[in-house]
Amino acid sequence: MSAAPSWFEWALQQARHSHFTHASGTRVHYVSWNAEDTHKPGLLFAHGYLGHSHWWDFIAPFFTERFRVHAFDFSGMGESAYRAAYRSDSFVSDFSAVLNAASIAPAIVVGHSFGGSRLLQTCATFPELIRHALVLDSFYALPGDALPVIERRPAPRPYPDVASGMKHFRLIPGQKCEPWLMDHLASTSLRQTETGWTWRFDPALRHTQTVESDEGLLGRIAVPVTYVHAEMSTVVSADRANRIVDAIPTAQNLITMPGAHHHLMLDQPLALVDQLRKLLEPLS
Questions:
Q1: CB 43 within 8 A of CB 105
Q2: Thinking of the domain 6-152+210-283, which architecture would CATH place it in?
Q3: Where is the AB hydrolase-1 domain (predicted)?
């Protein structure tokens, strides 16, 4: 296995601090890299479905020079608490709680996949909290789409140790990922329980509809939105990405990252950093 590059090791060495707040009665975990830099504008990163804030460990630290940088775990994921039931607005509530607790609103927010879709909802619901939304390869249902059928799957059984769990870690959808990066995601996706090691997400989320179906929501967005499409994505086609951008009155021209797959921070991490820097430069 090849060794992790120096830039990756540097990013993981940057101090990351945990915080907690509550969203609609549920404890929500968020992290900061430089919360003390209150003179800098706020920047928040939101992860994808069944992910967690560690997906940004090797991306977020590159932006602390100009921004006060945070990331968070959606309820039911990472170190955030489970909910009795999950609705679309549950995750909008998470956004609102973290942005207010971190005192960074109105903030620039970067959301990937599920996180980007929930970010669009937050833009329409709490526009005063968002200064600019950067949406990374996020699916959104458009007029005429049928909602996907939710597959009922049993909860995964606990693993006897971390190594066993890491062997079963998979990306959905699957794509190329360097072993050292895959190991980081796999190890941070597990937690120890009384019965063994299990994934850091509520099994009930597997039975929750994750596709937003409010057809008029995109047209109600009034805050600036930049949509970044991964050229090789199997989640969002180029046609859908263009239609999403066309439906948002405040959206800028579609940006496409050549050769990138859906998890663009995994197959092109430094290219994503460069792209985000270009987009964020006029906002710092």
A1: no
A2: 3-Layer(aba) Sandwich (3.40)
A3: 43-274
Inform me whether the pLDDT recorded for 211 exceeds 80. Answer: no
Taking a C-beta distance cutoff of 8 angstroms, is the pair 93, 24 a contact? yes
What confidence tier does 157 reach under pLDDT thresholds 50, 70, 90?
Answer: confident
Q: Contact 114/86 with Cβ under 8 angstroms?
A: no
Nearest to 188 by CA among 31, 1, 43: 31
pLDDT, position 210: 65
**What residue segments make up the domains of the chain, in order of their start?**
6-152+210-283
Residue whose token pair is 């019965």: 195
Nearest CA to 27 among 77, 87, 102, 89? 77
Burial class of residue 147, CB neighbours in 10 A (0-12, 13-18, 19+): exposed
Q: Tell me how far apart the alpha carbons of residues 77 and 29 are, in angstroms, rounded to a whole number.
A: 9
Question: Which of these, 74, 70, 75, 36, lies nearest to 56 by C-alpha position?
Answer: 70
Transcribe 136-192 into DSSP letters: ES-----TTPPPPPPPP-PPPPPBSSHHHHHHT---SS-----HHHHHHHHHHTEEE
What's the CA gap between 269 and 253, in Å, rounded? 22
